[in-house]
Amino acid sequence: MYSATFKVVIFGDAGSGKTTLAKRFMTNSFVSNTTMTVGVDFETKCLTIDGMRIKLLIWDFAGEERFRFIFPHYIAGAKGGILMYDVTDESSFTHINEWLSVVNGGRYKFPILLLGSKADLDSFRKVSYDEGIQTAKSMGLDLFLECSSKTGENVEKAFKILTKLILNRT
C-alpha cells in the first residue's frame, strides 16, 4: 500500500542524460549503452519519505525536437519535473527556456528541479555551477543540483528532494 503515487517527468535536450539518470535511479548502476528514447519511456520506483511509501511513475521524454510535439500531451497529470541539461553541452543549457515554455504554455503548475548532468566530466565543462544556480533562480525553478549518473552523485537525492517538494504542495 502506498501513501501516494506521483507522476514525475524528466525532460530536456537529447543527450542530456535523462535515460541514464532514470536507469541509474532504478538500478543503482550506470548503463552506458542506452539508445535514443523514441517518444517516452516509463519506469516505476518506490521511495520511503518521512515514513511514507511513495510510488513514483517516472516518464522519460525524448529530447529530440521531432518528438517535442507529444510532450504537452504526456505531461498532463504530472506532479513534478526534472529539467535536465548537460554541463558539457552549452546548447542543452540554452534550450532550458524552450522546454519551460512548453510547460508554462500548458499552464502546468508543479515543482521543477533543474538538474545539470555529467558533473563528473568537469574538465569538459561548458556551463558553470553558478550559471545553473542563477538560471534556476531567475526562472523561478524550485531547486538546482548537478549530478553524475556515472558515479551516482546526487541521483537519488534529486528524486528524494523533488518528492519532498511534491509532498509539500499536495
Can you put this structure into words, describing what you see?
With 170 residues, this protein is of the alpha/beta class. The chain has a single domain (4-169), classed as 3-Layer(aba) Sandwich (Rossmann fold). The protein is 32% helix and 27% strand. It contains 6 helices and 6 strands; from the N terminus they run βαββαβααβαβα. The chain has helices spanning 18-27, 71-74, 90-94, 96-105, 129-138, 155-169; strands at 4-12, 40-49, 52-61, 80-86, 112-117, 143-146. Strands 2-3-1-4-5-6 form a 6-stranded mixed β-sheet, with helices on both faces. The longest helix is centred in the last third of the chain and has 15 residues, at 155-169. The chain is globular, with a radius of gyration of 15 Å.
* Series of H and E elements: EHEEHEHHEHEH
Q: How many domains? A: 1
Total count of helical runs of at least 4 residues: 6
CATH topology: the name is: Rossmann fold
Q: What ranges have pLDDT less than 50 throughout 5 or more consecutive residues?
A: none
> Strands of the largest sheet, in order across it?
2-3-1-4-5-6
Mean pLDDT: 88
Distance between the termini: 19 Å
What is the number of E strands? 6
Shape: globular
> Beta-sheet strand percentage?
25-35%
| Major pleated sheet | 6 strands, mixed
Structural class: alpha/beta
Fourth-level CATH superfamily: P-loop containing nucleotide triphosphate hydrolases
- Reported CATH architecture: 3-Layer(aba) Sandwich
Task: Bin the helical content.
Answer: 25-40%
What is the CA-based Rg, rounded?
15 Å
CATH class: Alpha Beta
